[in-house]
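Please, structure for the following, as tokens.
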Amino acid sequence: MQVFRGRHLSGIVALALLGAAGPLAAIPPVKPLKVGQEWHYHTRKGEEKSTLVILQLDPGVAGKRLMHVSVRGLRISNAHAPSGFTTEVLHIPLTEAALRRSLTTIVAESVTLPDYQATYKEWRAAMDRGQASAFDVSVADALDYVDAALSLGHS
């Protein structure tokens, strides 16, 4: 499995969209991660009130377990959105290690999941064809990818 580590845009950003920035040095939470949990995380500047929800867990490949999350409470410029901004990204695939390093405190043990299944299925099909992967960077850095893709006009 190829895991994205750098700052290069890739097809995974577009697929993820269809559906404190900095180094990953935080101590990962020891708490077991479960579908439906809502977490605070190291956010980008100006999005300190945003949270993420764990959507799905995948065994992954090459020893890297994958976690799928949605993030809400964002402010990403998007000319395609009626308000001019995207406030939620429905699906971001991450390695478990990257997610754990991004998390800070749990908000809720169980929340209602957004309707992400169509975006997940599209990502999964691309993953199975070798055309998509998962992020191995912080959630904030993954959101920077999304932001860059939207600024280039990808929706």
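The first strand starts at residue 3 and ends at 4. The chain has four helices and seven strands.
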